[in-house]
Write the structure tokens for this entry.
Amino acid sequence: MALTVVIVSVVGVLFGRALARNWDALADIDLRPDGWIAGSVVLFAFAVVVSGFLWGRMVAQLGAIRVGLLEGIRVHCLSWLLKYIPGQVGSVANKLVWARSRNVSRSLTTLSFFYENAFLIIGSIVPPGLILLALGSVDLGEGGVVIVTAASVIPLLLLTSRPILRWGTNHVARRIFKREVPEAYFLGSVHTLKYQLLYLIPRAVNGAGLVLIAISMFDVPASHYVPLACAYIFAGAAGVLAIFVPSGVGVRESVFVLLSVAYLPVEQAIVLALAARLSATLGDGVVAGVYGLLTFTSRRKAGIS
């Protein structure tokens, strides 16, 4: 908790100074909400729903059990809302509680949580990173593309290799839980690649949400849509990796500003980052509404039966 407070405080001070330096330029920015902003909120919430659907399908496949479409989305929505607890403790705990109620293996559920986050992080770093490098937004020298490609292929190969992943997982499981994780709980190479591709969908939806905000606030050329979306998706990975910061507050915004100043003035990049955070938070409100509706519906069905 102390580390969380320190990180959020430092980021807040840095953002406050940046805003103060560019305060005059901020006066010319139109901050009124409109249909584009509303669309971004819907897209941010929809990305969570898609991720919930994919997680439910993955658990059903790994455990050879039936997980309803709405059930997987409902459980994932609550886990998403619990992301504000640092370390993702609340997110994984919620799915473990659900697993216990459904008599689903805790090992399977924990492994599905690992797969989910690995797919999201790789999908947030590799394609956007390569696109930003190709567009010249990030300069890592002549071998930049090769470096990023090699650095991204290694974790993807480890993820798709069932023997290697099982060996590493069981090495930890034997020490902590005094037992091994069954081989059936691990995805094969083909299914791993399939889910990795499918998990690019919610990343792309988030990028589209950012573009809608940019269109609403600034006169952004169409040629900047893709790099700005990639910058936001890439910054999202930094927020996920900052496990001590609730929902990556400040970290995601800082990385986005750093990557987007090649396409926007710094004051606009800062405001866009903050507006995206606000829209994403409103999107979480929509996710909460979806969770409430699905919970009410499931309990009503259980009462009728």
Summary: Confidence is low (pLDDT under 50) at residues 142-146. Residues 266-304 form the longest helix (39 residues). Residues 33-304 form one domain. The CA atoms of residues 253 and 274 lie 7 Å apart.
